[in-house]
Amino acid sequence: MKVLKGGTLIDGTGAGPVAGAAVVIREQLIEAITTRGDWPSEAEIIDVSGMTVLPGLIDCHDHLAMHGYDLARRWGIDEPQSTRALRTARVLQETLAAGYTAVRDAAGLDTGFKRAIEEGLTAGPRLVLSLNIVSPIGGIGDRVSPSGFSCCVPNDPLLPDGVVSSLADVRPVVRRIVRAGADVIKCATTGGASSRPGHGPRDGAFNLDEMQALTEEAHALDRRVMCHALGGRGLRVAIEAGVDSIEHGCYLDEEPELLDRMVERGIFFVPTFTVYEFHRKSALLHVRERAQHLQEHHAESLRRAFAAGVKIAAGTDAGGHGHPKNAMEIECLVKAGLTPLQALRAATGWAAECLGMERDVGTVEKGKLADLVVVAGDPLSDVRLLQDSAHIALVLKGGEIVVNRMATALR
Ligand SMILES: [Zn+2]
Fold first, then answer.
1. Measured in angstroms, how far is the CA atom of residue 43 from the centroid of ligand 1?
2. Per-residue pLDDT tens digits for 310-360
3. How far is the CA of 227 from the centre of ligand 1 (A)?
């Protein structure tokens, strides 16, 4: 039994901070939260005075196995697969060490990494995997070179192809991805900032009947649907078809009636501001221009969605521009209009709900898994603390201390 004593607790439910709340941990679970000192005398006491205890952080949109947008990297021909796998393992370790105890991978990471973490071969967060992106011919999952050639590399059987050629093809593609171990179905109904010229943020992909088949099949297999959709017709199709989360959603402000549909249906909004910070500096003109154009709409979309009652979940969309600190998204959410407490909820309690993991993680409550981060200082006065490893004093995953910088953490 361990007791984290003397810290300020932010529990991830949206409630304000509680000073002097002790978290009592028995094996994997949180046994109690108390301000009375009523734990068994044999408990190991960890004094976290002057620090803040948070639920383990969650990134709902990452690409842990992606290490660049250039063609050779995306096609996996720039280095041996073993080198690439070890590079990815290091990202998994660093992500956990940064206080991220759960991550939803939005394509690229295969089930072998999840298994390796579960077997203790390497350290990493709890994973929710999508494997690949389901989209039609010409959609963002259909990888062709700028010269029009499709990829020369055979498909990785652990990352089944997500390209759908017709309505009849939708269900088999979903089933194959689930068969390969996907926990969630990732799809795309629009282009994006970084997609090929001609398939931009408001250009649609998929018709309503195809998206209805996709969501129906995914739900029949007990998988949620996370949908890349920035704006225009594709965004509307995704929401009408009943996806479970809208990823990016940059032009939601142009379709305010869709926000009510999202609230009614409990559709989450994962805006992924972080990736656009990098897209705005892209060397590619069309990417830079799209990212600059959507910037104001994106922040306005967040404010309107939040005001309408849509639940917001934090996700970075990291990978293409390397792996910046995942907590950059928390700072971006604050810049776009959430309070620090709301932004923390988007990266904890709401994020867990978005992933369907709220019974186990996301908040510091009795009976949940003891996934916790102890931060030296007060992240409510400066959320950027969460991006500085010198302030991440302790990380616990399932009650086990996986990072311990208590001796050196800045207080
Ligand atoms: Zn993504």
1. 43
2. 999 999 999 999 999 999 999 999 999 999 999 999 999 999 999 999 999
3. 10
Predicted confidence band at 191 (pLDDT cuts at 50, 70, 90)?
Answer: very high
* Each residue's pLDDT tens digit, 49-103: 999 999 999 999 999 999 988 888 888 889 999 999 999 999 999 999 999 999 9
Residues with CB under 5 A from ligand 1 (ion): 106, 317
| Closest C-alpha among 135, 172, 94 to residue 392 | 94
Cα-flanking dihedrals φ and ψ of residue 226, to 5°? -105, 125
Distance 185 CA to ligand 1 centre (A): 13
Q: How far is the CA of 297 from the centre of ligand 1 (A)?
A: 19
For residue 404, report the distance from its CA to the centre of ligand 1, in Å.
Answer: 31
Q: In the numeric block, which tokens belong to residue 212?
A: 């209805």
In angstroms, what is the span from residue 307 Cα to ligand 1's centroid?
Answer: 25
How far, in Å, from the CA of 47 to the mean position of ligand 1?
39
Tell me how far the alpha carbon of residue 273 lies from the centroid of ligand 1, in angstroms: 11
